[in-house]
Amino acid sequence: MSDASRNIDLEVAVLIVGGGGCGLTSSLILSDLGVDHLLIERHAGTSLLPKAHYLNQRTMEVFRQHGVADAIYAVGTPMAQMSKVRWRTSLGGTGPLDGKTFYEIDAFGGGKVAPLYQRDSPCPSSNYPQVRLEPLLRAHAEKRAPGKLRFGHELVSFTQDADGVTAIIKDVEKDQPLTVRARYMIGADGGKTVGPALGVAMDGIKNIARIVSSHVTADLSPWWDDACLITWFINPDHGGTFGSGAMVPMGPTWGRHSEEWTIHFNFNPDDPEQIDEVSVLPRLRALLKLPDTPMTVHKVSHWTLEAVLADRYQVGRVFLAGDAAHRHPPTTGLGLNTAVQDAHNLAWKLAAVVHGRAHPSLLDSYASERQAIGRRNVDWAMFTALNHGVLDAGMGFSPLHTDALRAANFEMFFSDTPMGATRRARAAEVFETQRTEFQAHDLEIGFCYTAGALIDDGTPPPIPDPMGGNYQATTHPGHRLPHAWLSHAGQRLSSHDLAGSEGAFVLITGNDGVAWQSAATVVAERLGVKLVQAAIGAGQAYTDVDGQWAALREISEQGALLVRPDNHVGWRCHAAVGDATATLESALRGLLGR
Hints:
This protein is an alpha+beta fold. The protein has 16 helices and 25 strands. Strand 13 and strand 14 form a beta hairpin. The longest helix is centred in the middle third of the chain and has 31 residues, at 364-394.
């Protein structure tokens, strides 16, 4: 039966396959943009596993733009209780090498890096495990699109033609089929169905390691550092960082009084050891050196570490996002964050096309922009994962060491001797290289698009910090709009707040931008687009609160910036031009593919 003759039960503009963080974020944003859509998820509910938990500043900016950041901050980890990471031999224990700390590093925008993070974004980082984040996102998404999120519904098959996608969906509980016709489809299903059906290959390194994650309840308040988010264990009984484990509080109370925890164990792919809810408990007790502390194991999950990227992000009218497009080690916390930012990039483009404001060719820019970021993030996560082996070497540990030599090395490291001091000093220098994971400020907010829905102005962009930390704010096309505090009508707001949540472009001008402002009124009406005008300067509608905008804008008082709905700069003009209307219209048409 052809698509044209198939009976259609439901028609929508966009079908979202997958109800995890990426799919739910896509639904939230599409609702704000007025796009009719349907989300389906084969499971009856949201994730039962803690999974991802760190939400970086760029992700929180996306959630701020679309009205959920405050809800996350209200329940997520306060910065004071997620501001450092540490490496220890164990939590408890009474032996001479038990409960020892190798090193601590400031992390996620806390400690010594806090002023930089606070300067560069209106949003601090947050931490909220996916097992709790997904229900929060689902509640907000369902409120905005009643009846359009259908859990317990599975994609059976789909076809696409020149005008849209026809999908056969099954209500899992009732075993009833449903035929949905959509103009476009987003595969946010973790790569389980949509990508394989399209023949998309996941290229990269597979089967790197076998990970076992345990979700437990325990009172660890006597041993936990209140400011610590992640503790890595390294002790003589379990080898280096790879062979030991990592532990993260999961709340809902934060800091040392967290009720729930996740502990990850790493195994070589061919390691025969099997761990389940019963056998994991003695391993946990041995690692933590807490033989008598009551612990309840809720769930043990098994997953394979890989670093892979989809060879295509778009096939016709189908787009891949989130884990369906990229999967990588959890180091640097890039999985969920990249997924949310995929959704943010794609949604405004779909809305512009669906509403007739942009040519369909605009959608091609999703792949050209986000696939490059996916490649970069997969490589970075793999790099920071492998650097944990460098930490072992920095402490003088090797997997080739015998048990006796390993124990001797531990003893020497903590000894009150000149050689002990030397080993600790060397280790400190090496541990600081892991700032690439825990202080990746530039990597998280300084990423840029070099090809896509942007117009290059011929000037060189800033050179990214090769260690991922030193962020340089810029208005160069393709970069995220720099944050600066502004005052407008008696209210304090960020430059990021100018775009709003409804898909508007923003034209930012200075004190002498009257010609651009007049042009904006004409061009917005002519092209039928939402174009917010923001004149920033003394006596203008928006004032620069502390001079930060003037230091970052990189245009003259006669120049202009055109900012996309996702708060990335699309075009800029450094000075006045002869015909502002023609110049602005040409730029906006270029961004929209018209």
